## 1
Amino acid sequence: MNRSVPADPEPPQVGDLSPAPALPAPDTGRSPHRSGRVPGKGTDTDVSTGPGTGVAAEGGRRSDVAAAATGVVLIGAACLIGAAIERSDATLHVPWPPLQAFWLPHWGPGTPAAAVVGAACVGYGPRLAARLPWRPLLLATWAAAMAWTWSLALVDGWQRGVAGRLTTTFEYLSQLDRFAHVHATLRDFTHHILETQPHPWTTHVAGHPPGATLTFVALDRLGLGGGAWASAWCITAGASAAVAVLVAVRALGDEATARRAAPFMVPAPAAVWIGASADGYFAAVAAWALALLALAATRAVRAPGAAALGAGLLLGLAAYLSYGLVITAVGAAAVLALARTARPLPAALIGAGAVAAAFTVSGFSWWQAYPLLVERYYEGVGGVRPYGYWVWADLACAAFSAGLAAVAGARRALAAAPSAAARLRTGTPSGPQAVAVLAAVALLMMLIADLSGLSKAETERIWLPFIVWLLPASALLPAVDHRRWLLLQAVLALLVNHLLLTNW
C-alpha cells in the first residue's frame, strides 16, 4: 500500500538486482536509505529495477518466456499423465487432475465484474501503483484484491460460489454444534481425529488444529453465522494478504520494489481459491505475522516490541490453524536474516508461546494430535494417492495458483538469490534482492511440504500461505513487460474459474 525517472528504463538481468540510485521519498515515515524512487506525476512510466539494455536484456526476457513455457509444459504433463493414471486405476482421487476440480464450462453473475476488474488491473495497475501515496496504495490493493476475489467467486453463483462453499459435510461449519462447550470439546478433540474412533470429525476439522474451527465458532457467536458470513470473512482476510506482503517487501527492501510488486498481488489465479476457502484466511494470518516481524526487525514502526509480540501471536495462531504452517518458521528466519538482526526474536517467541500455552491449558495437545492426523491421512486417500506423481504434480498445482508471471519471476529470484545471500554478509540487500530471497524461501517452504508426502494434491489452495510470497517476484520482470504478464495472470484465472468448478 516523487521523483521522476527516465521513461521505460530496462531492468538489470538476473544476478544483478541492484536498485536504481536511491532518492528520498515524501512522507514515508522511513529512513532515506530504505526508500526507492518512483515515477512522478508528470510521467506515465512503470517503475523499473534499474538500468540495463541491449542483448543481455533481451536474453533475460527470452529466459522469462522460457520459464513460463516450462510452467505450461509442467501443467500440461500433470493434466495428461494425471488423466491417464485416473483412467487406469483411479488412485489420484481428484476429478480433474491435477486440480481438485470438475470440468464444467460455465459463467455467472461474477463474469462481467471479473472481466472489468481484470482489465482495470492490467490497464491501470502499474500506473496507479507508481502514483498513489503509500497508504492509499495499500488500501487500493486490498480493495482491488477483494473485488477480484469476490468477482471470481460469484462466477459460480451466490449459493455455489459463496454461501454454500463452507457448509458442505467436509467443511468446518458442519461441526459447529459440537463446540457448544468449547473447553470440553478441546479436551476431547484428539479422541475424534481417527475415523475408527467414535464420532470422528469431518475431513477438514480432523485435518486441522481446532483454531480453524474456533474461528467460525467465534463468528457464529458474534451473530455472523452461516456460510455467507464465513466466506465473507475468508475473502476479506485472504485479500489482505496482498497488503501484508507489500508491507514486508517495503520494510525489508524498498518502496519502489513494493510498488512494482503491487499490481501483481491482485489478478493472480490464487484468488480462485482464496474465494472462498479457509486457506485464504490462513494465508493472511501467516502473511501478517511475517509482515509484523519485518516491521519490528527493521524498526519501521513506533513500537517494534509490540509488533514483534504481535508477529509471535500470529505465528502461534497459524500453527493452530493448520499443522503445515509450522513451516512458516522458515519464512520468519528469512525475515530476520534479511533485516540482519534477531532483536525481535524474544518477544516473538513469547507471543507464539502464549498461544501454544493457551491451547494446551484448554486441553488441546498439538503434539499428540499431529501423529493422529498423519495416521488418518494415510488411512484415507493420502495412503492411496501415488507419491511418484504428486511429488511433481503438486508443483503444477502451485503453478496454476501462482500464475505464469510468478513462475517467470521465480526464475529470476532463484538466479539472484545467491548474490543476495552473499550481500547479507556485507550489508543490507537491495529491494529486488530482498524480493528474490523471499521468493526463494517460499519455494523452499513448498519443497519441504512437498517432500514430506503430506501434501499430495490440493496444493493449489493448501500452499496459499507460501504462494503469496512468490507473487512479488513478478516485480523482477522488465517493467516494459509488466502489463503483458498481468494480462497473462488475469486470463489464466478467468479460464480456470470459467472452465472448471473447484471443490473448495
## 2
Amino acid sequence: MKLKNKLGILGISLLAFACTDLETTNSDYLLADQYPENQEQAIRVANPVFARTQGHADWGGWWFLQEITSDEATAPTRGGDWDDGGKWRALHQHSWGVSTEAVEQMYRFVYETMPRANRAIELLELGAEADPEVQKVLSQTIVARAYFYYLAIDNFGDVPFPRTFTGADEFPSRTPRADVFNTIVQDIKDNIEFLPTPVAGVSASSINKGTAYALLAKLYLNAEVYTGTPMWQETIDACDMLMTYGYALDGSPKTPFLSDNASSKENIYTVPYDEDTFTGFNLHMRTLNYQNQLTFGMGIQPWNGFATLEAFYNTFTSNDTRKYALLEGQQYDINGVALTDADAEGANVVLTPNIPALLMPTNAFSKQQIRMSGVRVVKWEIPVGARENLSTDLPLFRLADFMLMKAEAQVRLNGAGAGDALINEIKGRSNAPLTGGYNLDEILAERGREMMWEGHRRQDLIRFGKFNNTWWEKTNTDTNRKLFPIPQFAINANSNLLPQNPGY
C-alpha cells in the first residue's frame, strides 16, 4: 500500500542508505510473510530509518534552524557571496516565512522519515515475538521514530502524528504538542528494556539504552516548553540513569570532535559521517576563509561564510582551551607562512571578531571587511587533505551536555549553586575560571561555550526565555518565532494542517 503525499512528503521509497555501524544492504521488497525472521533481515528493514540522521548537518535544515537563528552563529552576506535570496539573513533576523528553504528542509527531514519508520515498525512486529534480536531492532526503530518526533514538536509545536503505515490517514490533522510528547515518552519507556546495553566508546551511532535515556532527559528538560509542566526531577533521574553506563568526559575538549572519534567515551549518540559513503558534514566548508585551504592543506577551497557573533566570541576567557575551535587573527599556511589575499589587494588574511554588518555590499565595505570579518569555527578536526565532506562522527548527544542539563535542573529545583560540582568539572577540563554559586544565566552562558555550534542553542534560548531578545543585527522580539511555521507546500497538500502556527 502507498501512503499518499498529504504530509508534504516527497517520497517514501526504501532506498539503500549506507550506515557505518550496520554494514548491511537494503531490500526494496520486504513484504513477504517470512520477513523479518532474523536480525540481519530486521536491520535491512530498519536501515532506511537509522540512516536518516545523515541530514542533520546540512540537507535536513536542522543545524541551520538551531544555530543561524541563535546568538552564537551567523551567515553574513559577503558582497555577492552568501546572498542566496536572503535566506540566511531571514534566519538570523527571525524573518523567515512559510516558504523559507531551511524550514521546508526541516519539515521534510522529519516527515520523509515517518513513513519509513512506520512501515519498518509494522514489518518488524511480524517477527519480534519469535526472535529477541528482531524485537531489539523493533525497539531501536521505535526510539528512532520518537527522536524524529522530538525534533518535530521542538521545531513546529503541534504536528501531524502518523503512527501506522497501513491504512494511514491521507489527510491527517495536527496532534497537540503535549499529546505527542506524552506518547513518545511512553514509547521510549516501553522499549528501553529491549535495547542493547551501551559500551562507552563503542557503536555510538546505534541506538541503545544510553540513547534512550538521553532522549528522555532532553524531553523532560524541555517539558515545560512542550507541555506547560516542568519535569526537572525527571530530567535529573534520566541523566542519572544515563550516567550509569560508563560514559566519561574525555581528557581534552578536542577529543569528542577528532576525525577518529568513534572511541570517545564522551559521545553517546552520533551521526557516522564518512567523506565518501555517508556524506553531508561540510560545516568546515561553510565557515573557513578561502585562504584557509592552505592552512589545513585541503584539497578544495572553502566557501568563506558562517562565523560567530562578536559578543558570543567575547564570552570566552583568554585561557579557555575551547578557544582552539575559534579561528581568529592572522592566518597561516600549513608551513607557518602568513597568508595574504590577492583578491583583497594583497592584504594579510586577518580574521576579526567584529563583523561590520549582516549585509555587506561591495560599494559600502572594503574587501578585507567582506572577506575576513568574523571568527570562524573549527571545532571538528579538519585533517590534512580534507575535502568537501568530513569523516568525523557528529555528536548529537554527548556527556558534557547532560552534565550541564542535570546541573540546570538542580538549580531550577534548589537554587543557585546546586549544580556547581558538575559545572566546575566541565570548566576545569577547559582551564576556564572556576567559581561557584552558578545561577541560570551563568549556566546558559556555559552551555554556549561548551556546546557551541552543536545544534542546541535555539532550544536553550527558548527554554531560558531569551530567544526573543535582541542581539547583533536581530531586532525581532516576536515570541511566536519560538516555533517555525508549517511550510506552505505541506498545507497546499493537506489543508487539515491548518490552522497555521500563530504569527505566520
